Amino acid sequence: MTAAKQEQLKILVTGANGQLGQELVHLNVRPHIQILGYGRDNLDITNAEQCANVVSDYQPDVIIHCAAYTAVDKAESDADEAYRINALGTRHVAMAAKACGAKLCYISTDYVFDGQGSEPYEIEEPTNPQTVYGQTKLAGEQEVAALLQRYYIVRTSWVYGKYGSNFVRTILKLASERDHLKVVDDQIGSPTYTLDLALFLIELVQTDSYGVYHASNSGSCSWFEFAQAIIQYKGMADSTFTIEPCSTAEFPRPAARPAYSVMSHSAIRGAGLEDLRPWREALMHYLKHS
């Protein structure tokens, strides 16, 4: 007796040219899963008609909505554009999902919290974004929740991966160019490897466990500790390069960074899904394979 053939699952990914979008599109998934990615060049989410047409043509079972305005500092002086992409654009994607009956997975951020906590944020804790970026991503969450019943909102943090620029690549580049570097040690969060996040998302969207999730690699660190680990695991710790901790106040930025943005993974465990591996393990895997 042969096993029943698994039903085809069609997934549409927005923002397919970004770090997470590219990771999803290049994933080695099971044969019954079909992933089609759309970048800004062929899907402008701020265009409601184009959103509707693209989704209607492909008829996906799931949309993983990665497209976003992510320039955190620039958003402070470009609020209208950030809102147009993160809130209005998300509304267009949600409306298109609703029209074709697709599930929607919206990628959000730790910036929806104020960063003043000292214990991992639970999904039900009040949001209080302190930046334009955080405010517009939260507005996107609200659009999704208001329009749809079958949705997942996945908040993540400190994302890095093999596609695009990120903190890990920046640290390695600077370490090859300089003898000394200062990195802030008073911002605490959880790094997230795009490969692990992408694999989690594919598992999540195959369930009916809708709602809000916090997904990052397990554990937490400061940016300074993260940088130390990068140098150590890359085998550069014995070189003449040195890293020194410093305060956020020494490097003021247009957008305030959360002092503490660690998020609880209780929703992942509650849904019976496998948590993302510890951040140090993920970093070692990335450095070995990138």
Briefly say what this structure is.
The protein is α/β, with parallel strands linked by helices.
Characterization of the model:
The protein is α/β, with parallel strands linked by helices. It has a domain at 9-166 and 190-217 and 262-276: Rossmann fold (3-Layer(aba) Sandwich). It is 36% helix and 18% strand. The chain is built from 9 helices and 12 strands. It has helices spanning 19-25, 48-58, 79-100, 132-147, 167-177, 194-204, 223-233, 266-270, 279-289; strands at residues 9-14, 33-38, 62-65, 103-109, 151-156, 159-160, 180-184, 188-189, 192-193, 211-214, 221-222, 242-246. The strands form 4 sheets. Strands 2-1-3-4-5-10 form a 6-stranded parallel β-sheet, sandwiched between helices. Strands 6-9 form a two-stranded parallel ribbon. It has a two-stranded parallel sheet with strand order 7-12. Strand 3, helix 3 (79-100) and strand 4 form a beta-alpha-beta unit. Helix 2 (48-58) packs parallel to helix 3 and helix 3 packs parallel to helix 4 (132-147). The longest helix is centred in the first third of the chain and has 22 residues, at 79-100. The radius of gyration is 19 Å and the shape is globular. The mean pLDDT is 95.
